C-alpha cells in the first residue's frame, strides 16, 4: 500500500510508476468553479503558483487539472487520476469533489525539478456518514475567526460535522432573543477568570455559512441539565443550588449560587427539574436554536449531571428529546441519557466512555440503538483531543487514562468499543476538544495535531487491519509527509517524536 502523504487513507490507492505531473503556472484548471476555486487557493498557499482558470476546455496540448461532479458513486465519494499531462478529479457530489481536491493538495510535492504530483489512481469513499470534531467554546470562548479556521483544518481531513459546545458552567455563548439575559449576565467569564464572550445570531450564521462552504454541518449543543451554573446567573428561578456531595472539584474553587464559576470542576450544577419555569426555559432556548440552525441535529448534552436525582434526570432528558423531535430536529445526547426509558425515537447517543467501557457506559449506549437511534463514538482515551499528548505537554489534561499518544489515538477500532453494537448501529466518529487549557488557535493546533488525523482515519477509512496501509506504521509515515502542507497552511502542529517528519 501507498507511502504517499495521505490522511485519512483512501479506500484504494494505485501508484502509477514512472508518471509525474509537473505543476507549473502554465497548468490550466477546468471544471466546477467552486472546486476549482478551492484548488486555486490551496495550490497558491502550498506553492505560490497562480494557475490559469479555464471556464471551458483547456487549450489542446496544455497540462490540465479537471475537477467535475459526475454523480457516479456513493455520497461524498470521488475518483482521482494523475497522468503525465492531465489530472482528473471526479466527485459523486459537491462534497466528494471537495474531498478529492483536498487529497490532491496532499499529493503536491517539492522536487529539484519544481512542484510535482506523483502519478496515481485513487478511488475513495467514506466509511461513516458522520465524521465530526467538537470545539468547546464555553470553558474558553473562541471567536468566529478561530472557529472557522479550525473547521477549515477539519474539513481538509474530510470531517463533515462541527459540533459546537455552546454552554457550560463557566459561560453561555450564543445570544438568544427569547432569553437575552443569558448573554447579558452569563457570558463574561471563562476558566481561570479570563475574558468570556459570545456569538451574536449573525456570528452564528456566519459560522454555519463558512461550514457549509467547506461541506460541514454545524451541530449546536446546549448542555443540560448539568453544566448549567451559568444559566443561574441569568435566570436563577430555573437553576438548582450547587450540589457539592460527590462533585469533581478538579482542584478549583467551590461554586456559589449567583456567582460566576471559573474553575474546572464538574457535576455540581443542575436545573430545577419539573418546574414550569424550567420547562418554559428549555422550550424557549431550543425553539430559537432550531430556528437558527439549518442542520438536522440539536445536541442537548446530558452528561455528568451528578447534582440531579436519577429520576429527575431521566424525566428531563426524555422530555427534552421530545421537544427537539417536535421541532423537526434529531436529538443527540451524551451516552448517560440512555438511562431514560422513553427518549424520543431515533435519538442519537454520543459515547464518551473509555475504549474499554466502565460503569455501565456500554449499556447506556446500547439503549439508543434499542430505541431506534444510532451511536456516535468519542472514546475519551483515544479521541479526546484535550488530553495531553505527552506527560510534559504544557497543555491538556490526563483524566482519560492520559497522556494520549498519537499511536494510542490511532490504535482503536470503532466496532470493537461497545459490545453488541454493529457497524450499522454507528452513525460515526467525533473527536472532541474541550478547552479548559485552550485559549487560542495556537493552543488548538498544539493539542489537535497530529492526533486529529488519527480520528479522521477512524471516521473515513476502512476498518483497521483490513487494508495493507491501514496500520500504525503506515499512518505515522503518511502523516509525517503532511508536515510541509500543514506548515504552509499555517497549522502550528507540534513535531511529535512519534513521527518522522518530512522537512
Automatic annotation (TrEMBL):
The keyword Phosphoprotein does not apply. Gene3D superfamilies: Chitobiase/beta-hexosaminidase domain 2-like, Glycosidases. It holds the Pfam family Glyco_hydro_20. Its EC number is 3.2.1.52. One of its GO terms (molecular function) is beta-N-acetylhexosaminidase activity. InterPro entries: Beta_hexosaminidase_sua/sub, GH, Glyco_hydro_20_cat, Hex-like_dom2, HEX_bac_N. Keywords: Glycosidase, Hydrolase. Residues 5-125 form the Beta-hexosaminidase bacterial type N-terminal domain. It catalyses: Hydrolysis of terminal non-reducing N-acetyl-D-hexosamine residues in N-acetyl-beta-D-hexosaminides. It comes from the Bacteria. Residues 128-461 form the Glycoside hydrolase family 20 catalytic domain. Belongs to the glycosyl hydrolase 20 family. This is beta-N-acetylhexosaminidase. It comes from Microbacterium paludicola.
Amino acid at each position: 500500500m501507498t507511502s504517499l502523504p495521505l490522511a485519512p487513507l483512501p479506500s484504494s490507492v494505485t501508484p502509477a510508476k514512472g508518471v509525474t505531473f509537473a505543476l507549473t503556472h502554465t497548468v490550466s484548471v477546468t471544471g466546477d468553479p467552486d472546486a476549482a476555486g478551492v484548488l486555486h487557493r490551496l495550490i497558491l498557499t502550498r506553492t505560490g503558483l497562480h494557475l490559469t482558470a479555464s471556464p471551458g476546455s483547456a487549450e489542446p496540448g496544455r497540462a490540465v487539472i479537471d475537477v467535475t461532479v459526475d454523480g457516479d458513486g456513493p455520497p461524498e465519494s470521488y475518483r482521482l487520476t494523475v497522468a503525465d499531462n492531465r489530472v482528473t478529479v471526479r466527485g459523486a457530489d459537491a462534497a466528494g469533489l471537495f474531498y478529492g481536491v483536498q487529497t490532491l493538495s496532499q499529493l503536491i510535492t517539492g522536487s529539484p525539478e519544481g512542484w510535482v504530483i506523483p502519478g496515481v489512481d485513487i478511488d475513495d469513499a467514506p466509511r461513516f456518514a458522520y465524521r465530526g470534531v467538537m470545539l468547546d467554546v464555553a470553558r474558553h470562548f473562541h471567536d468566529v475567526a478561530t472557529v472557522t479556521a479550525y473547521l477549515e483544518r477539519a474539513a481538509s481531513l474530510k470531517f463533515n460535522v462541527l459540533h459546537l459546545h455552546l454552554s457550560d458552567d463557566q459561560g453561555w455563548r450564543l445570544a438568544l432573543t427569547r432569553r437575552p439575559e443569558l448573554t447579558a449576565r452569563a457570558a463574561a467569564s471563562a476558566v481561570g477568570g479570563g475574558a468570556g464572550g459570545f456569538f451574536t445570531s449573525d456570528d452564528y450564521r456566519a459560522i454555519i455559512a463558512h461550514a457549509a462552504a467547506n461541506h460541514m454541518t454545524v451541530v449546536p449543543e446546549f448542555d443540560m441539565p448539568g453544566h448549567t451554573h451559568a444559566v443561574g446567573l441569568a435566570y436563577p428561578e430555573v437553576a438548582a443550588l450547587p450540589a457539592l456531595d460527590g462533585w469533581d472539584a478538579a482542584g478549583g474553587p467551590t461554586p456559589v449560587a449567583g456567582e460566576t464559576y471559573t474553575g474546572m470542576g464538574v457535576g455540581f450544577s443542575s436545573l430545577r427539574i419539573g418546574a414550569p419555569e424550567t420547562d418554559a426555559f428549555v422550550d424557549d432556548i431550543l425553539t430559537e436554536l432550531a430556528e437558527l440552525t439549518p442542520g438536522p441535529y440539536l445536541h442537548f448534552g446530558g452528561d455528568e449531571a451528578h447534582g440531579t436525582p436519577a429520576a429527575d434526570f431521566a424525566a428531563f432528558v426524555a422530555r427534552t428529546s421530545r421537544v427537539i423531535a417536535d421541532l423537526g430536529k434529531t436529538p443527540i445526547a451524551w451516552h448517560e441519557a440512555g438511562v431514560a426509558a422513553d427518549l424520543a425515537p431515533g435519538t442519537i447517543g454520543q459515547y464518551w466512555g473509555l475504549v474499554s467501557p466502565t460503569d455501565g457506559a456500554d449499556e447506556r449506549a446500547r439503549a439508543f440503538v434499542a430505541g431506534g437511534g444510532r451511536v456516535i463514538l468519542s472514546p475519551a482515551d483515544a479521541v479526546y483531543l484535550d488530553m495531553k499528548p505527552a506527560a510534559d505537554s504544557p497543555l491538556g489534561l490526563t483524566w482519560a487514562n492520559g497522556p494520549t499518544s498519537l499511536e494510542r489515538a490511532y490504535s482503536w477500532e470503532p466496532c470493537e468499543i461497545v459490545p453488541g453494537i454493529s457497524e450499522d448501529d454507528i452513525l460515526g466518529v467525533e473527536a472532541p476538544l474541550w478547552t479548559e487549557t485552550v485559549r487560542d488557535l495556537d493552543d488548538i493546533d498544539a493539542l489537535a495535531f497530529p492526533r486529529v488525523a488519527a480520528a479522521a482515519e477512524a471516521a473515513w477509512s476502512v476498518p483497521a487491519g483490513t487494508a495493507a496501509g491501514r496500520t500504525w506504521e503506515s499512518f505515522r509515515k503518511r502523516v509525517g509527509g503532511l508536515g510541509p502542507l500543514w506548515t504552509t497552511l499555517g497549522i502550528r502542529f507540534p513535531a511529535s517524536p512519534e513521527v518522522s517528519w518530512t522537512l
